[in-house]
Amino acid sequence: MNIMQLHCLAPAKLNLFLHITGRRPDGYHLLQSAFQLIERCDTLDIRTRDDGIIRRTNSIEGVAEKDDLIIRAACLLQSHTKSGFGADLTLHKLLPMGGGLGGGSSDAASTLIALNHLWQCGLKRQELMELGLRLGADVPFFLFGCNAFAEGVGEKLQEITTPEAWFVVIEPGVQVPTAAIFSAKELTRDTKPIRITDFSSTAKIHWKNDLQTVACSLYPEVEKAIQWLRAFGDARMTGSGACVFCAFPDKNVAEMVLKQVPDCWTSWKAKALSKHPMSHLVQT
Known about the structure:
The chain is α+β, with helices and mostly antiparallel strands.
């Protein structure tokens, strides 16, 4: 095999809403959500090897190489396909950890997409999604290729069309561990399920994030960021936190709001995406 290289994008997602509808006997929570891809990405540089070795070439604070989802994804694909090839993986983190943006899951998905292509494994999209679910509930979405209405634990996906928009996102400066939010006794788990046809009926349904109240009680900075951003629109938290966001119709309005964000928070704007930037590399 000739040595090949690929520069990969791993986009963030926002949960336009997130409802917890129940809990399975194994402890996993049942949910409904709308996943929105945005134009804010981690990046990966991947170089194939012919000796079977898989390694990360750079250090990432707080993430040991063996625990990194990109390494776990590469090893899983190698084992599943019995590939004899390896890879050097260089991960450039832009998305915050513990931010609810799906950064680690997106990194894992882009690794699977890239190595399935570079190693010529031949797995189709559904096979990659089933493999990705072993790494985390959000990974299948990033392999799905477009915005989605999600059910189950997040793995049952249907394509949706979302409006063109720009988002202002605030990082409140705290990391919110997902397990702490989902295990909180205050978390309600009985939101009435909706139908995908209800998604555009915003006048009938109060779109919300069921995890937000718990996160705000444990991490007051999240609540402060939401309240500040609500002066400009319908601000809410994404995922299990900590990032909060608000949608705007165009770039100029988003930039106007962004200029006013207090310096104590990291903030940025991002455009809505309709397709995953690496989707074309996956066979359907």
